[in-house]
Amino acid sequence: MKTFYCKQLSIIGLLLLLGSCPGIYGQDSISQKSQMLDLKLQLLDSKLELLDTKIKLWEAKPKELDIKLNELDSKISSMDFDPQMVTQKITEMDSIMKITREVDAPVVIQQSYATEEKPVFVADYNSAIMLDPIRLLEGTFLLSYERVLTPSLSFNIGGMATYSTNQGISNYYFSNQSFAVYSAASNEYLTYTGEVISGGGVNVQFRNYLLANHPGRKQAPLGLYAAPQLMYRRISIKGTHPEYVEVETGTWEWQQKEIIQRLNIYAGGVILGFKLPLFNALAIDVFAGGNIKLSGYKNEEGF
Predict the structure, then answer these.
(1) Which tens digits make up the pLDDT trace of 207-257?
(2) Which of 100, 198, 201, 270 has its CA 20 to 30 A from that of 161?
(3) List of residues 6+ apart from 231 with CB closer than 8 A
């Protein structure tokens, strides 16, 4: 029996314990939930306070900006000058400086040109007129004209006028001439004293400038050349010859007989020369060569 009662009591005790445990747990969970709710409410209140603070700051900033703008306006109005006028003056100064730069630009260009080297003068002739001063010593005035045909070829023609006596610049040449005339009566040449040599002639040359085809060399009518030439001259020689003539029957005396000879001269040959420029307007022509010359007196056979 005791055993039975003990079992019953133990079972009742267990039931009581089981019945009392859910109530304890239920009370704890409610209290915890209430505490959590209080914390959430506190956080919400703090957020609302922060939001109010931000709104107040946003409302205060436009006012501060308006205050600052008002201060700037008051400072600008207190100034003695107009900002628009200052802007206009600055624009005018910029335009003046731009015009000055445009005007000064050509001066700089002129200065740069002034520092450049002077261009080298290059003679470019198509024709030339020449005087032979050596022939003046024999009493002959030779004036020639040269015309360029190609860069290496030219044609030269010259006219000669001669008047030589034993006086003046041709004295030396004239004094060294010997004059003789053929006498048919005696079949011999008789010497006589010359007084005047006069006449004219023409000289023709075809000049080939030898270095014209080389780069950097001078072209016609300047430089080294070779030329065949032909010449013709007609000369008149006047003089006197003493002749013993009969004046009257049985009377003889010496008289000066006037003699006039007509001389034709033909010549042909080759010359080699060099023409160099002088003072950009003149030229010196130095040449040497040889001719075959044939001379014949009028009314005489042969040369």
Answers:
(1) 999 888 777 666 778 889 999 999 999 999 998 888 777 777 777 777 788
(2) 270
(3) 201, 202, 203, 204, 265, 266, 267, 268, 291
Using pLDDT thresholds of 50, 70 and 90, give the confidence band for residue 108.
very low
Label each residue of 74-104 as H, E or C: HHHHHCCCCHHHHHHHHHHHHHHHHHHHHHH
Q: Give 281's DSSP letter.
A: T
Nearest partner of 268 among 282, 289, 286, judged by Cα: 289
**Nearest-5° angle of CA 269, CA 275, CA 277?**
165
How many CA atoms are closer than 13 Å to the CA of 132, on its beta-carbon side?
Answer: 21
- Residue 157 token pair: 């023609």
3-state SS of the chain: helix, strand, coil percent to 5?
Answer: 40, 40, 20
Q: How far apart are CA 177 and CA 197, in angstroms?
A: 10
Query: Residues 245, 248, 252, CA angle at the centre, nearest 5°?
Result: 35
Single out the residue of 209, 225, 217, 226 nearest to residue 123, CA to CA. Answer: 217
Q: Taking Cα atoms as reference points, which of 192, 160, 161, 199 lies closest to residue 177? A: 192
Instruction: For residue 202, report the phi and psi dihedrals to the nearest 5 degrees.
Output: -140, 145
Direct distance between the N- and C-terminal alpha carbons of the chain, in angstroms, rounded to an integer: 202
Q: By the 8 A CB rule, do 154 and 146 touch?
A: yes
Query: Token pair for residue 291?
Result: 């001719």
| Strand, helix or coil for residue 210 | coil
Task: Quote the tokens at residue 34.
Answer: 């209430």
